[in-house]
Amino acid sequence: DAGVTQSPTHLIKTRGQQVTLRCSPKSGHDTVSWYQQALGQGPQFIFQYYEEEERQRGNFPDRFSGHQFPNYSSELNVNALLLGDSALYLCASSLDEAEQFFGPGTRLTVL
Amino acid sequence: AQTVTQSQPEMSVQEAETVTLSCTYDTSENNYYLFWYKQPPSRQMILVIRQEAYKQQNATENRFSVNFQKAAKSFSLKISDSQLGDTAMYFCAFMKFTYSGNTPLVFGKGTRLSVIA
């Protein structure tokens, strides 16, 4: 049983560009949450998708948007990248239970 | 809003010894979950142990156990017989309970644990 997968592993972009990160949830999971983890910090909640809709959102600007597909996979899009967007982006999946299963993350560097 | 505080940025322990990581949280909720996650250098966040707030008994998973003090809003993690593979960042996290599915995890800033041979 494959766990949560994310792609790409690493990404380097320049300021002002746009980026798309992808996540495939654990088999059978229908809820995907995205977190941003800055260096030396704990993860911060960005948003959560369930049944292809954004169900909850953290304190992130509209430059951060997402999507969930019918197969429950998800994308995180960030527009107009800033230096401060450099971070590890974590995807977590779950199914009506407390435990969230995390992927290995995508390391985004903005130059 | 909930907050989670981990007051120990770094800790070290000798192999085979016992270490306790501290966590306090602030919430007005009565029903919630608390978690300890481990993040090794590989970056994968791995669940170590979880505690339901309605349960008075402290959770235990092999060498890992917690001391949950609901009134004091304290949730410490004890690692017994420490192993080199326990070297990692440890995050304490809070999740509000709802009947409508998952709510976001609120994380502390983490404690970097080094196990020394």
Please give the alpha-carbon distance between the first and last residues of chain B: 41 Å
Please work out how many helical segments of chain B DSSP would assign.
Answer: 0
Q: How many domains make up the coordinates of chain A?
A: 1
Largest interface: pair, residues per side:
A-B, 29 and 25 residues
Q: How many strands in all of chain B? A: 12
Pick out the low-confidence regions of chain A. Answer: none
Question: What is the fourth-level CATH superfamily of chain B?
Answer: Immunoglobulins
Share of residues in helices of chain A:
under 10%
Measured distance between first and last alpha carbons of chain A? 37 Å
User: What spatial form of chain B do the alpha-carbon principal axes imply?
Assistant: globular
What is the element string of chain A, with H for helices and E for strands? EEEEEEEEEEE
CATH class of chain B: Mainly Beta
Q: In terms of structural class, how would the helical and strand content of chain B be classed?
A: mainly beta
Mean of residue pLDDT of chain A?
Answer: 94
Task: Assign the CATH architecture of chain A.
Answer: Sandwich
Tell me how many strands of chain A there are: 11
* Shape-level CATH architecture of chain B: Sandwich
- Radius of gyration of chain A (CA) equals 13 Å
The CATH topology assignment of chain B is Immunoglobulin-like
The largest pleated sheet of chain A is described as:
7 strands, mixed
